[in-house]
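Record passed on here:
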Amino acid sequence: MKVAVDYNNMDGYINYDEVAKTIEVFLPDEAKRREVEDYLKQAHTLLVPGADCKAPFVSRLVVAHESLDDFYCALSRLWERTEVAIQWSRRIN
């Protein structure tokens, strides 16, 4: 799974391997790449949607490399933590 990212008009991407449970970050800015890697290595307690659209948000421990769902949850907070934007609609080959 690859997602496109953008930082300061520099394109990059983040690759998540579901089988190996590894994450690789590719950004031209080395300091920002390391910051994103550090963020994605940490466990985070996040408020996430409940079981259905009427359920309240619930607190959940998210570890980005553990599952695709956790990876997506961690990415949803990437901008506010690192100022790296996910380009959800941009296709990566």
About this structure: The longest strand covers residues 10-17. The mean pLDDT is 94.
